[in-house]
Design a protein that fits this description.
Blueprint (H helix, E strand, L loop, with lengths): L2 E5 L7 H17 L11 H8 L3 E7 L5 E12 L2 E8 L3 E2 L8 H15 L4 E7 L3 H9 L3 E6 L8 E7 L8 H18 L8 H8 L5
Parallel strand pairs: 4-6
Antiparallel strand pairs: 1-2, 2-3, 3-4, 3-5, 6-8, 7-8
Helix pairs in contact: 5-6
Bound molecules: coenzyme A.
The site of coenzyme A has 18 residues, from strand 5, helix 3 and helix 4.
Length: 209
């Protein structure tokens, strides 16, 4: 698959084209029984969501149409502004998946994060979205948490991709963190984000959100 990878602002790609890409990809997830909140977005929600994000697109060299995208929103950790980026809208058109497009987007995303001096990239994905889980692990992401946010109808893994070395990104730390989150979340919430009695208590105590 021959694609050009660029920042959105360097292309002629429109929000409408990316919005329809997202709808196509997440409609397939819906058919697989995985509801992702992006499917409920309107074009305005979508534009607002990517407004301040770094958006990287994969454009098919032949047609000039976008066949993949990834967005990275910058966050602060404590006092450090732009400490990490949250990978959100990662999607490759259904007909060209497994041809290396996602890997090319990933490479550009990691380079952008490194150029910005970010310490790490965060991401999450439904535990049932096995292609996405495998993709992230293969590209160097480490599972470091477990959640039920209500944004999907399944539990999700959270991942961390180290850009700079730190305690937070060591395999041991991530494994321990994952185990703690797994136990707390499974006792606190169902897969759709509804709280069990213990969850309500832990939420009141601000242990979980
Ligand atoms: C996840 C996704 C972005 C991967 O993009 P892609 O272009 O298909 O991925 P690549 O071709 O670069 O694959 C790289 C590696 O990821 C893994 N992978 C990708 N798709 C896979 C699948 N369907 N099953 C198993 N492993 C898969 C493989 O290890 C693959 O390497 P290999 O082909 O050498 O074995 C794409 O499948 C997608 O858009 N999925 C739907 C939306 C989604 O799940 N988004 C992410 C979180 S919300």
């Amino acid at each position: 698959m021959s694609v050009i990878i660029k920042r959105l602002e360097e292309t002629e790609v429109t929000h409408e084209e990316l919005f329809s890409l997202i709808k196509e990809v997440f409609l397939k997830r819906e058919e697989e029984g995985i509801h992702v909140s992006y499917i409920d977005f309107t074009i305005d929600d979508f534009s607002l969501h990517i407004k301040d994000a770094i958006v990287i697109v994969a454009v098919d060299e032949g047609s000039g149409k976008p066949v993949g995208m990834v967005s990275l929103r910058l966050f602060r950790d404590g006092e450090v502004l732009r400490e990490y980026g949250y990978e959100e809208l990662l999607a490759v058109s259904n007909s060209v998946q497994r041809l290396g497009v996602g890997s090319q987007l990933f490479k550009a995303e990691k380079k952008a994060a490194s150029n910005l001096g970010l310490s790490y990239i965060r991401s999450d994905t439904s535990v049932k979205a096995t292609s996405s889980v495998t993709f992230h692990k293969k590209r160097g992401y480490i599972i470091d948490g477990y959640q039920s946010s209500g944004l999907t109808n399944t539990y999700s893994y959270t991942f961390i991709l180290p850009i700079k070395r730190s305690l937070k990104t060591t395999t041991f730390y991530c494994k321990v963190r994952f185990l703690i989150f797994f136990v707390i979340i499974r006792l606190s919430k169902d897969s759709e984000g509804n709280y069990y009695p213990l969850g309500k208590l832990l939420r009141k105590l601000k242990v979980i959100s």
